Amino acid sequence: MNYKKIVEMDLIENRKEYKSKSIDIETVNKNPITQLNQWLNEASHEKRHEYNAMTLATVNSEGQPSTRVVLLKYIEEDGLYFFSNYKSQKAKDLMLNPKAAVNFFWPELERQVRIEGQIRKSDTNISDYYFHERPFESQISAVISPQSNEIADRSVLENEWNKLLLNSGENELKRPEYWGGYLLIPKRFEFWQGRPHRLHDRIVYKKQNDSWIIKRLAP
């Protein structure tokens, strides 16, 4: 094939053979939330860094998809919780279209999980609780950052951060109304386990009324 080489890395030859584990309809948990929790625990026990990191995909008013990494902070039967600025770009996307998707990827375990569903703001009590569980310095950052807005330079943030630190002393900060939690209510899960020769295992759960229908997909 004739093509102009624009990078020095040979990405075509960058391959890995997956062969550590397998999954099957008969072995996965019938509840995808429980199955996800099991995989998160395994990633945690393997001491994977940021094992709770998930890529969140949203779509803006022009139909342009956008992704960013957020951290899963709570997982409960009703869904997955993460936190952000309610004035950020992701928040604007979700206000127009609350449908979103997330993806976990643990390369060392040769696994990924894709989740699709609806997102809504979490209860204010959950937002208040998590905000005050954060380190005080992180609380300050949440208060002073106009997330996703353009700023002149980093000094703008640093000056506001230091000013609030000085003025707050040891007083507890109040969670700003523009910062809080989101709940992803899942409608679809896909658990992917790498297998030899690219014949990967893909087990999908789809919500049907109050039940989960489990199927296998071709890789």
Description:
The chain has 219 residues and is an alpha+beta fold. 26% of the residues lie in helices and 33% in strands. It contains 5 helices and 9 strands; from the N terminus they run αββββαββαααβββ. Strands 1, 2, 3, 4, 5, 6, 7, 8 and 9 form a 9-stranded antiparallel beta sheet that branches. The radius of gyration is 21 Å and the shape is globular.
Summarize this, please?
The protein has helices at residues 32-45, 89-96, 124-133, 136-144, 154-168, and strands spanning 53-59, 65-71, 74-76, 79-85, 99-106, 111-121, 179-193, 201-208, 211-217.
CATH fold topology:
Pnp Oxidase, Chain A
* Total domain modules: 1
CATH class: Mainly Beta
The fourth-level CATH homologous superfamily is Electron Transport, Fmn-binding Protein, Chain A
Structural classification: alpha+beta
* Overall radius of gyration: 21 Å
Low-confidence stretches: none
